[in-house]
Amino acid sequence: MREPFVRLLLGGEMRFLLIVLVALACLVSTSRVDAQSASSRDGRIEAAKKAFAVGTRAYGEGDFDTALHEFRRAYELTESPDLLYNIATVSDRMRLDEEALEAYEGYLSARPNSVDREHVASRIDILRDAIEARRQAEIDAEIEARKAAIEAAARVKAERPLTQYVGPGPGPWITIGTGGATLVAGAILFGLGQRDQNAVENAPSGSSYSTVQEQADRGPRRTKAGIALMSVGGAAVVGGLVWQLTGGHEEAMPEISIGPTGISVKGRF
Fold first, then answer.
1. How many other CB atoms sit within 10 Å of the CB of residue 179?
2. How far apart are CA 110 and CA 165, in angstroms?
3. What pTM does this model have?
4. CA 61 to centroid of chain Cα atoms
5. How far is residue 229's CA from residue 219's CA, in Å, rounded to a whole number?
């Protein structure tokens, strides 16, 4: 038969169960504990009593972290369900709702006929409602965050252009540069050819025949080569300019997709 235990009123708010030595001795007198040595049994009882005393004192001083730690230790040493009430009460004060609910439920399951049944059952209902309300608030907050992200993405999608102009790249400028160099080279050859022809036409009396003949043969060749190079170079410059002006194209911008799981972007960059 379990011995009666003493209830303490702390701070005018919480009731604590002070497990007396006789009750602890009875609780540890189970078949599992009976198999252990008497010295080990007595050591656990003493440790549990000290932990309970430290926890009770800490609770009275408002040190709830220490109180919860010591009450847990006392429970681990004795497995007394009465200590679940202490654990639940401190956890409740610390707003550890899940732990408080679990401890209250464990206490009420082990002590269904306790005089505290109505109070404990009331706290269980309140904690369940609080936990459910918090979970629902977290769900609502996540839904609102996703809605805000979807609306922001929709605004960006509506404001951005559907296509973008993509130029032809460096090809036209390379063509223009090469054509310009060819055009300059052709102009130089053409000028040299014209100079040779002018030298032949205006050769002074007594000029060497071989010199005049060489200039007469070289001048037309240079002139023709210059004209050919200028034609090719000019065509390359004009073609490069036309390529640069007309070689670009419109390309679709990356598309923003909005779905139930979030926002994704697809397309080429």
1. 20
2. 76
3. 0.47
4. 43
5. 15
Positions of E strands within the chain: 6-10, 14-18, 163-166, 249-252, 255-259, 262-266
> What is the C-alpha to C-alpha distance for residues 150 and 83, in angstroms, rounded to an integer?
50
- Beta partners for residue 265, in sequence order: 256
Q: Within a 13 Å sphere around the CA of 263, how many CA atoms are in the beta-carbon half? A: 16
Other Cβ atoms within 10 Å of 167 Cβ, number: 11
How far is the C-alpha of 58 from the C-alpha of 50, rounded, in Å?
A: 12
- Residue 8 has what pLDDT? 38
Residues β-bridged to residue 249: 166
Strands (E), 119-221: 163-166
pLDDT along the chain (269 residues), means of 10: 35 42 44 55 88 94 95 93 94 95 94 91 95 94 90 76 75 88 89 80 70 77 87 87 77 60 52
CA 4 to chain centre: 57
Separation in Å, CA 77 to CA 8, 24, 42, 47, 269? 21, 10, 11, 8, 65
Three-state DSSP state, 63: coil
User: What pLDDT, on a 0 to 100 scale, did the predictor assign at position 5?
Assistant: 33
